[in-house]
Amino acid sequence: MSDNSDRARAAADYTYALGVQAVIYGWAPVMMDVACELQTSVSAPCSNGQAPLNRFGPITRLWDWRDRSYTTPNNDTLYLQAWLDIAERPIILYVPPITDRYWIEQAVDMYTESVVDLCNATLGGRGGYFAFALDGSELDLPADVPVYTSPTRYVWLAGRLGVADSHDLGQALEVQRQFRLMTPDEYPNGGVQPEPIRVDEAPTVVFPRGLDWFDRLSSVLAANPLPADEPIVGQFRSIGVGADIDLDEHTSRALEAAFADGVRIIRDAAMFSSTAVNGWNWEFNAGRYGTDYLARASINMNSIGLNVPERAMYPKRYVDDRGDQLTGARRYSLTVDDPMPVNSDLGGFWSLTMYDAADRYMVENEIDRHKVGSTTDGLVRNDDGSITIHLGRDRPSEPDAAANWLPAPDGDFMLQMRLYEPEAHVVRGEYELPQVIRL
User: Which of 13, 40, 82, 404 is deepest in the core (most CB within 10 A)?
Assistant: First the structure.
């Protein structure tokens, strides 16, 4: 009896250990799969970013607290996104010439590895046609169309267009409409975007949990296999991931526990890992993870499909200068130099955005301000040109502080700085952001 009990415990422990590894390995691709299903579950392009596969979903306003499709969305740019299925044939993207604003059409595979970043830094503003194809596929494309390949059949195009202010929105929307997606037989004039169906709010993601999450991982791995990862993925079959196995009560409980603890490990890494400087967590390997699966999971828990550092840096923080969790019940300040170290010739700019610490979405507030940055009107500058930003739930009583107030929720919050097109010394890790001082 004892032998059977010991063997059952050993089997459960093994299931648990592999389950935790599966959660860490699979967190990013499951997030991507859930997002892909959510965003493509419509019959026509919509103004909230949803669209069928291989069609653009234009988001026609700046996202705010209402939008809960992706964690830590920005309030700086219009999104122009598409989910490509390149299993059967390549898809060709047309980019119009853009020289007067920040823009990027970022492409990532289903494991959030960078495929390519098309932007002013890489194209010089000239635009053109670009093809996306599956690794190893036979191609019949025009010779002058560059081809970028992905190891996964699905590719996410996460496009962004900078918006200087409310008066600039109309011009930005006109640029957004000029992007096109087409099949090779539609080249070069296909893919004109139709007028999107008006939908005011982004769809809310429903993320699987527990055993449902492991079932979702099985389907993701089947649709997007990576032969190089077989040594680790193959082990997961023994716990029912990628294999048809009946789970007994002990195995099911072990996987439930593995999911909960795997999420806890990823969340801890999301809050405190990466490179910490002055309380800010910098991520210097975003988009290029290799076998660092915990980094991939934690970075995507914070911000799905993060850009490579050369295109944007996203330092974030959860704590104040004393190491305590940021909370709306307290008041804080930080003083930033302006201009910040971003390449304005490439449209680079900066912003600081407020998010709820628990879910990492923006927060509704009385002045409808979700970020402060280089495009924010009405900020009061110090004598040396720097800007002191005030953080907290309650509006400051001093007029200058109120002008620079970034409202916080009642409870815990996190901050994310965005440095679009950062200068080289930032990417090398030679730049420090200021502390967030508790007042």
Answer: 82
Q: Which of 245, 227, 248 lies closest to 236, judged by CA?
A: 245
Q: How far apart are CA 380 and CA 386, in angstroms?
A: 9
- Residue 248 in this model has a pLDDT that exceeds 70: yes
State mean pLDDT over 69-95: 96
Provide DSSP, 101-131.
Answer: S-EEEEEEETT--EEEEEEHHHHTT--EEEE
What is the average pLDDT across 84-88?
97
Three-state secondary structure call for residue 362: coil
CB atoms within 10 A of CB 139: 13
Angle at 408 between CA 407 and CA 409, to 5 degrees: 130
Contact (CB, 8 A) for 281 and 316: yes
In the beta sheet, which residues pair with residue 240? none
| pLDDT, mean over the chain | 95
Whether 371 contacts 318, CB under 8 Å? no
The pairing of strands 77-85 and 57-58 is: antiparallel
CB 119 within 8 A of CB 185: no
pLDDT reported for residue 271: 85
| Closest of 164, 79, 159, 73 to residue 118, by C-alpha | 159
In sequence order, which residues have a C-beta less than 8 Å from that of residue 141 and are 6 or more positions away? 90, 92, 131, 133, 147, 184
Burial label, 150 (beta-carbon count in 10 A; 0-12, 13-18, 19+): buried
Per-residue pLDDT band for 3 (boundaries 50, 70, 90) equals low
Task: Give the residue among 56, 104, 86, 226 at the shortest CA–CA distance from 149.
Answer: 86
Residues 6+ apart with CB under 8 A from 132: 84, 86, 90, 91, 92, 93, 107, 115, 147, 148, 149, 150, 155
What length is written for the chain? 439
**Ordered strands of the 128-134 beta sheet:** 147-150, 128-134, 91-95, 180-182
Euclidean distance between CA atoms 368 and 363, whole angstroms = 9
CB 26 within 8 A of CB 296: no
